[in-house]
């Protein structure tokens, strides 16, 4: 469950970065990305989508950052618990994956992208591994 430890770490870092960034600084960064998108993306639809997504992050910066921090922390704690073969780590990670997998599937269905599809496959794989190896993953907790 190193995957969840890494993704949780990335979410915590991005959340902390967003919290530390001023709204003006974030708006400048979004404008710079939008300018680059216009240079490299041939499709106006892609540019509009990227700009809309980034502007949504700017307008909800604090909530988005705090959500990333909370989710990342939960993933890190659950992954550490699982790596230590603790039952609570297993059940916490199982709950996180079960709750977020439908969200990932719906998001990928609405906004199809290769990275989104890869995250769905990755999370489905994590769920399969958790269920298939549940006894081995928490075996030391009973001892």
Describe this structure in words.
With 143 residues, the chain is mainly alpha-helical. 86% of the residues lie in helices and 0% in strands. The chain has seven helices and no strands. It has helices at 2-20, 23-40, 44-59, 61-83, 87-110, 114-132, 134-137. Helix 4 packs across helix 5 (87-110) and helix 5 (87-110) packs antiparallel against helix 6 (114-132). It is globular and about 55 Å long. The mean pLDDT is 83.
Multimerization status: single chain
How are helices and strands ordered from N to C?
HHHHHHH
Strands, total number = 0
Taken from the alpha-carbon principal axes, the silhouette is: globular
In this structure, how is the largest beta sheet organized? none
Can you tell me the residue ranges where pLDDT is under 50 for at least 5 consecutive residues? Answer: none
Task: State mean pLDDT (0 to 100 scale).
Answer: 83
> Radius of gyration from the CA trace?
18 Å
Question: What's the gist of this structure?
Answer:
With 143 residues, the chain is an all-alpha fold. 86% of the residues lie in helices and 0% in strands.
List the SSEs and their pairings.
Elements: H1 2-20, H2 23-40, H3 44-59, H4 61-83, H5 87-110, H6 114-132, H7 134-137
Helix pairs in contact: 1-4, 2-3, 4-5, 5-6
Key structural traits:
7 helices
């Amino acid at each position: 469950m190193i995957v969840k430890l890494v993704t949780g770490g990335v979410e915590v870092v991005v959340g902390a970065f967003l919290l530390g960034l001023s709204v003006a600084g974030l708006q400048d960064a979004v404008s710079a990305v939008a300018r680059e998108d216009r240079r490299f993306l041939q499709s106006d639809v892609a540019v509009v989508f990227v700009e809309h997504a980034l502007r949504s992050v700017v307008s909800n910066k604090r909530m988005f950052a705090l959500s990333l921090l909370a989710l990342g922390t939960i993933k890190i704690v659950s992954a550490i618990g699982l790596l230590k073969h603790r039952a609570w780590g297993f059940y916490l990670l199982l709950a996180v994956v079960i709750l977020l997998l439908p969200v990932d599937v719906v998001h990928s269905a609405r906004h199809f992208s290769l990275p989104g599809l890869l995250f769905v496959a990755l999370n489905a794989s994590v769920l399969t591994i958790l269920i298939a190896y549940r006894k081995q993953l928490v075996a030391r907790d009973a001892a």
